[in-house]
Design goal:
The protein is an alpha/beta fold and about 375 residues long. Helices cover about 30% and strands about 10% of the residues. The chain has two domains: about 250 residues, Type I PLP-dependent aspartate aminotransferase-like (Major domain) (Aspartate Aminotransferase, domain 2, 3-Layer(aba) Sandwich); about 50 residues, no CATH class. It starts with 6 loop residues before the first helix and ends in a 6-residue tail after the last helix.
Length: about 375
């Protein structure tokens, strides 16, 4: 094979031998640490994409890397035919962190959502008493929960959905944040409402204040499970451990992923109390790699970081500083773009951040805002 040295060399090879299911930026990352990545040609970039929220602690956080290294020297996979010494401590730490009785570990976020859908349906049949094969789950317009066949069946994104039919039945979609629409859609066969506390695929969409508390009350009144997909918005990103907690809401079921693996290994999980999770019994659900010792060791280290509250406090401080009216002092050096290295955002005028200096724009594209227009022209997608 010809020696590869430039970004374009690696891109050409990837385009030739890898499926074209992504259209990445023309940057080939070779090294990453904290908020910075370096490409194969030695250019340094501020990584404002953060692995689509999988890198809540930055690249290669020392505590998480050490946890992985320590476990690599001991055991990595046992299969669930055996117990391992990492699964129990991980589940206990995550259970305490999110306030739920039980944890079902998986690998990817989509797996966690699929698992939650199965749990909700089975709970509906065995606990609520819904007629066999009649369970319905309410979802939200503009949702993103993954790209499995079932999940894209209730997506309204044509790129994710088109040409993959026939689609899985049993889902009703309503406008995001519309409590009246949710209430109108609930009937005797409704077993769950699946909601992202903050949507993040087609722009960042935050529901009106009071929607999540109102949804919680409605689900309780109608005996319907509130399933919160916290895979992207959760685990400290909004200043609380879970995004639902921002309005003091506790869901019945949480799906977790992305940052749960610390940017090192795929780790996801479903969290619920025993009266819901109890419908899962031996043989009814599983995963070869779910709950493996390496993933569990890293996942517990993530829980330990979040248990300190420091990362949540950082997010709250950042939000508070960004929300304050900003008045630039004289001089270009004070102008900031709003990235983590600079602090509160200002106008688009270039200034102290290298990411906004025209002379270095080609080196800092990862700091540009992720708009729908940019995405359509090739901006990376989840």
């Amino acid at each position: 094979m010809t020696q590869l040295s430039t970004n374009q060399d690696f891109i050409d090879l990837e385009n030739r031998v890898a499926a074209h299911n992504y259209s990445p930026l023309p940057v080939v990352v070779e090294h990453a640490e904290g908020i910075w990545v370096t490409d194969v040609e030695g250019r340094r970039y501020l990584d404002a994409l953060s692995g689509y929220s999988a890198l809540n602690f930055g690249h290669r956080h020392p505590a998480l890397v050490q946890a992985a290294k320590d476990q690599l020297d001991r055991s990595t996979l046992t299969s669930r035919a055996f117990h391992n010494d990492q699964l129990g401590p991980f589940c206990a730490a995550l259970s305490e962190l999110v306030g739920k009785d039980m944890i079902l570990p998986m690998n990817t976020g989509a797996e966690a959502v699929e698992t939650a859908l199965k749990i909700a349906r089975k709970w509906g049949y065995l606990v609520k008493g819904v007629e066999a094969d009649m369970a319905e789950i309410i979802v939200m317009d503009g949702n993103f929960h993954g790209r499995t066949t079932t999940i894209i069946s209730f997506s309204d994104d044509p790129e994710a959905r088109d040409h993959y039919g026939p689609y899985t039945q049993g889902f009703v979609s309503v406008p995001y944040g519309d409590l009246a629409a949710v209430e109108a859609a609930i009937h005797d066969n409704t077993v769950a409402v699946l909601v992202e506390p903050i949507q993040g695929e087609q722009g960042v969409k935050i529901p009106k204040e009071g929607f999540l508390p109102g949804l919680r009350e409605l689900c309780t009144d109608r005996n319907v499970l509130m399933v919160a997909d916290e895979i992207q918005a959760g685990l400290g990103r909004v200043g609380t451990t879970l995004a639902c907690q921002y309005e003091g809401v506790e869901a019945d079921v949480y799906t977790l992923g992305k940052a749960l693996g610390g940017g090192i290994v795929p780790v996801s999980a479903v969290a619920a109390d025993a009266d819901v999770m109890g419908v899962i019994t031996p043989g009814t659900h599983g995963s070869t790699f779910g709950g493996n010792p390496l993933a569990a060791a890293v996942g517990k280290a993530v829980c330990d970081l979040l248990a300190s509250g420091g990362h949540q406090e950082n997010a709250r401080a950042w939000r508070a500083s960004s929300a304050r009216p900003w008045r630039p002092s004289s001089g270009r050096a004070s102008r900031r773009c709003g990235c983590a290295a600079c602090g509160p955002a200002s106008t688009s005028t270039p200034g102290c951040c290298p990411a906004r200096r025209p002379a270095r724009r080609s080196r800092s594209r990862a700091c540009w805002p992720r708009t729908r227009t940019a995405r359509r022209s090739g901006w990376p997608r989840r």
